[in-house]
């Protein structure tokens, strides 16, 4: 009876304790979930969603699942997803209102960086202070201009031939007009002559003036013939002048094709700068993102508590939440390639400016982009220093097209490369270098746009075929807001040297081709003029021979003058009359 | 209509006051007032709540007082902040504060907050006068209510 009474008392109390524990666990889960969301928003300004939260008091373990961190600039998209985030909390610091995570692990991390251009800066930084790429662009434009296909027309011999042809056309037209005028006059004279012969008495005066007219006409014909006969001699003189101009053409052409070699550093800038700027912009955005996640000063947010918290003399402010060690495991996408990543973050805190030790991050990826990254983010009092070391060896690089699509493009086939990066940001000051080494590729140069007609492609291909490695280095300086960069690469010198050799190799051949073409055009046109002269001469001879023959006849058939006296009009004297 | 409303209030007051002695009513009201004045997210407020429910005093009147003075305390924040700041910045007490603060649960108490300390001090300062007034009022009400 007494024992059953005890059970009646104990059982409800036991049940009450169990219910209280379960309620406490559930309540703690809710509290931890709320704390995680609030801390995330306060620390990085990004909204955190937590699917479930569970707390095991005995194991001091907390598990958050289905985590999503929203993009601060685009709240509909997530920058980070994680399947599970479990961590073990130290109990002693909890008594001092501090959450210290001794160890934790994030699994199923899916990190999809989607940095928009200039997300953090008001305008794109100007990395390079010089205009080397513009100088290279101008040099290539100059080269294209030197190899213009219509340059033949600008050669002295061809221009002289042009002038000759146009002058000869005018002169031929003038001679032709003169010939036709003389023909017209001869025909008119012939018609008048024939009309006069029908009634010689009435045309006495005509016949009297006929010899002079015929003589004048004959003289004009002779003058015309002499002028036409003089044309071959004139043409020969012109030909000699053109031949002299050809020698000058040869020199002009060789001078024109003798170009100073392009500056190797200019060409490096021309080939690499544009792509480098994109990558450097992204790098600076990452550094700024790192500063957003690990700020160096408290963000100016309205305090959720009333009044002020006073820090007593001798007390040291400690961060609210500290992650001593946090393992990361998941996947991401770097340079468009999916990679698996494993990493470790140590000493991360929501208030890093209160920490004594810097935050350290070690990341290693596997897959097509094996990368090792070490970052030291120092926000200890008086410091704001970031150090980023990236070592990426044996990366498979996709085909890259360097240069400009309207001039010179250099296509690098897929290859294996290594990327090393050593960046330091102290305060706002940026220093460091980025080095990319590519090996085992094949270079295909492509001359496009205005350079399409430049006959260097084959030689360039031949010469650049020997180049199979590239070493490019970028040295960074300046500040995060106004970064500066200097570029150094062996690709520019290699292409410059190949360009120079190809120019020298092809310039003579090209000059010969141009001169042959010019000579062909000149000869063809001179031959045409000669042919025209000959044709005109033969036509003139044929046409004027008939006229000349008639003129000769007209001159010979001069009719004697008759004068009829008064007596003759009355009678005719006998033939043997003495009074005749 | 009016008399019906008065009847409801009278019933409520009777329910609150009739069961306990004037001292218990005054103690409940005073504790509720202090709870109402102090910001809630700290161990001091929690301890006061525990005290309210542990002591033999009128809980109902305490809760009503806590709710009423919670609204009122917001208006007093500027004064309590100044008072708390003055007390917490007293040089001679810094070592004491620091040693208390570094004890386990020290930061949870929230006494380093100017408004918490200021409002607690205000509450404690007016506690006895309020207790005395409420006790007399309750005595009068109870004697008036008794036939």
Helix content of chain B: over 70%
Percent strand of chain A equals 25-35%
How are helices and strands ordered from N to C of chain B? HHHHHHHH
Oligomeric composition of the shown chains = heterodimer
**How much helix, percentage-wise, in residues of chain A?**
40-55%
- What is the CA-atom radius of gyration of chain B, in angstroms? 18 Å
Order of helices and strands of chain A: HEEEHEHHHHEEEEEEEEEEHEEHH
- Major protein interface: A-B, 15 and 27 residues
Work out the number of β strands of chain A. Answer: 16
Spatial ordering of strands, largest sheet of chain A: 1-2-3-4-5-6-7-8-9-12-13-15-16
Outline the biggest β-sheet of chain B.
none
Strand tally of chain B, please? Answer: 0
SSE layout and pairings?
The complex is a heterodimer of chains A (580) and B (147).
Chain A: H1 2-44, E1 48-56, E2 61-70, E3 78-89, H2 92-95, E4 99-111, H3 132-146, H4 156-198, H5 204-257, H6 264-293, E5 321-334, E6 337-349, E7 359-367, E8 371-378, E9 385-397, E10 400-403, E11 408-412, E12 415-426, E13 429-439, E14 443-447, H7 457-464, E15 469-478, E16 483-489, H8 491-556, H9 566-570
Parallel strand pairs in A: 4-5
Antiparallel strand pairs in A: 1-2, 2-3, 3-4, 5-6, 6-7, 7-8, 8-9, 9-12, 10-11, 11-14, 12-13, 13-15, 15-16
Helix pairs in contact in A: 3-6, 4-5, 4-8, 5-8, 6-8, 7-8
Chain B: H1 2-17, H2 22-37, H3 43-54, H4 59-75, H5 77-88, H6 94-101, H7 106-109, H8 114-145
């Amino acid at each position: 009876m007494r024992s059953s009474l005890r059970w009646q008392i104990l059982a409800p109390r036991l049940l009450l304790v169990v219910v209280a524990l379960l309620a406490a666990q559930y309540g703690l889960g809710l509290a931890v979930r709320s704390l995680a969301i609030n801390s995330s928003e306060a620390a990085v300004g990004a909204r955190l969603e937590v699917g479930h939260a569970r707390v095991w008091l005995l194991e001091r373990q907390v598990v958050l699942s289905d985590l999503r961190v929203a993009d601060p600039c685009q709240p509909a998209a997530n920058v980070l997803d994680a399947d599970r985030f479990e961590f073990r909390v130290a109990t002693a610091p909890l008594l001092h209102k501090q959450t210290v995570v001794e160890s934790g692990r994030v699994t199923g991390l899916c990190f999809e960086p989607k940095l928009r251009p200039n997300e953090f800066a008001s305008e794109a930084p100007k990395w390079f202070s010089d205009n080397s790429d513009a100088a290279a662009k101008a040099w290539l434009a100059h080269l294209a201009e030197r190899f213009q296909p219509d340059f033949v027309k600008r050669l002295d011999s061809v221009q002289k031939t042009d002038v000759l042809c146009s002058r000869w056309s005018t002169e031929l037209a003038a001679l032709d007009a003169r010939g036709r005028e003389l023909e017209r006059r001869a025909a008119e004279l012939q018609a008048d002559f024939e009309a006069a012969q029908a009634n010689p008495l009435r045309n006495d005066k005509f016949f009297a003036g006929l010899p002079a007219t015929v003589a004048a006409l004959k003289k004009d014909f002779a003058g015309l013939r002499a002028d036409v006969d003089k044309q071959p001699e004139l043409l020969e003189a012109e030909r000699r002048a053109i031949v002299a101009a050809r020698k000058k053409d040869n020199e002009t052409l060789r001078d024109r094709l003798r170009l100073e070699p392009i500056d190797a550093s200019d060409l490096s800038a021309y080939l690499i700068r544009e792509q480098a700027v994109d990558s450097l912009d992204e790098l600076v955005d990452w550094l700024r993102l790192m500063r957003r996640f690990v700020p160096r000063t408290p963000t100016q947010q309205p305090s959720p508590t009333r009044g002020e918290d006073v820090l007593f003399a001798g007390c040291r402010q400690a961060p609210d939440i500290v992650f001593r060690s946090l393992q990361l495991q998941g996947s991401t996408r770097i340079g468009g390639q999916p990679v698996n990543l494993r990493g470790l973050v140590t000493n991360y805190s929501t208030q890093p400016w209160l920490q004594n030790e810097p935050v350290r991050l070690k990341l290693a990826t596997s897959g097509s982009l094996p990368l090792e990254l070490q970052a030291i983010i120092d926000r200890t009092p008086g410091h704001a220093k970031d150090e980023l070391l990236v070592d990426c060896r044996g990366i498979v690089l996709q085909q890259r097209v360097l240069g400009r699509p309207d001039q010179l493009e250099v296509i690098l086939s897929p290859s294996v490369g290594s990327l090393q990066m050593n960046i330091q940001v102290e305060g706002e000051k940026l220093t460091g270098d980025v080095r990319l080494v590519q090996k085992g590729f094949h270079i295909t140069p492509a001359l496009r746009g205005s350079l399409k007609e430049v006959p260097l492609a084959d030689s360039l291909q031949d010469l650049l075929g020997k180049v199979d490695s590239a070493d490019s280095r970028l040295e960074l300086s300046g500040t995060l807001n106004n970064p500066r960069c200097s570029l150094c690469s062996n690709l520019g010198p290699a292409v410059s040297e190949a360009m120079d050799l190809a120019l020298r190799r092809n310039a003579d051949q090209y000059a010969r081709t141009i001169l042959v073409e010019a000579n062909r055009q000149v000869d063809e046109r001179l031959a045409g003029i000669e042919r025209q002269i000959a044709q005109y001469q033969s036509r003139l001879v044929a046409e004027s021979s008939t006229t000349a023959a008639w003129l000769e006849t007209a001159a010979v058939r001069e009719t004697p003058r008759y004068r009829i006296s008064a007596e003759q009009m009355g009678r005719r004297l006998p033939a043997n009359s003495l009074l005749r | 209509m009016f008399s019906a409303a008065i009847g409801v209030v009278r019933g409520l007051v009777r329910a609150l006051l009739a069961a306990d002695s004037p001292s218990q009513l005054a103690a409940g009201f005073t504790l509720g007032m202090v709870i109402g004045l102090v910001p809630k997210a700290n161990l001091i407020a929690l301890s006061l709540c525990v005290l309210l429910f542990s002591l033999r005093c009128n809980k109902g009147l305490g809760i009503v007082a806590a709710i009423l003075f919670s609204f009122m305390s917001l208006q007093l924040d500027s004064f309590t902040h100044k008072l708390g700041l003055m007390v917490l910045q007293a040089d001679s007490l810094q070592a004491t504060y620091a040693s208390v603060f570094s004890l386990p649960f020290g930061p949870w108490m929230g006494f380093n907050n100017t408004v918490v300390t200021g409002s607690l001090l205000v509450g404690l300062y007016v506690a006895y006068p309020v207790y005395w007034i409420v006790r007399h009022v309750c005595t009068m009400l109870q004697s008036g209510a008794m036939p």
